[in-house]
């Protein structure tokens, strides 16, 4: 049985979701920034522009950072 993997927004990874509407930044781009070393909303903003205008997406960016950190902790423990 195949299980669909979703991002923090519940969107399948095969789809793309816009996280930052002001700067048109996708969830995939935010994940790439986090995977590249960004650890805070400000660092993600510096890397790709997400969250640098109105701030309405900060909670979503924080969620993506949390999920990526949790995933990397599981991988490093295993």
State the strand order across the main sheet.
1-2
Helix content: 40-55%
The proportion of strand residues reads: 5-15%
Kindly name the structural category: mainly alpha
Helices and strands, in order, run as: EEHHH
Q: Give the CA-based shape.
A: globular
Instruction: Point out poorly predicted stretches.
Output: none
How is this structure best described in words?
The structure is a single chain. Helix content is 47%, strand content 6%. The chain is built from three helices and two strands. The chain has a two-stranded antiparallel sheet. α1 crosses α3. The protein is globular, with a radius of gyration of 13 Å. The chain starts with 17 loop residues before the first strand and ends with a helix. The mean pLDDT is 85.
Question: What's the helix and strand layout?
Answer:
Elements: E1 18-20, E2 25-26, H1 27-35, H2 41-48, H3 58-77
Antiparallel strand pairs: 1-2
Please outline what is shown here.
This protein is mainly α and 78 residues long. The chain is 47% helix and 6% strand.
Which features would summarize this protein structure in a list?
mainly alpha; 2 strands; 47% helix; 78 residues
């Amino acid at each position: 049985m195949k299980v669909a993997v979703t991002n923090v927004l519940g969107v399948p990874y095969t789809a793309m979701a816009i996280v930052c509407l002001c700067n048109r930044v996708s969830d995939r781009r935010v994940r790439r920034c986090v995977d590249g070393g960004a650890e805070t909303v400000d660092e993600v903003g510096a890397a790709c522009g997400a969250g640098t205008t109105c701030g309405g997406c900060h909670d979503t960016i924080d969620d993506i950072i949390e999920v990526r950190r949790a995933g990397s902790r599981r991988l490093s423990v295993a």
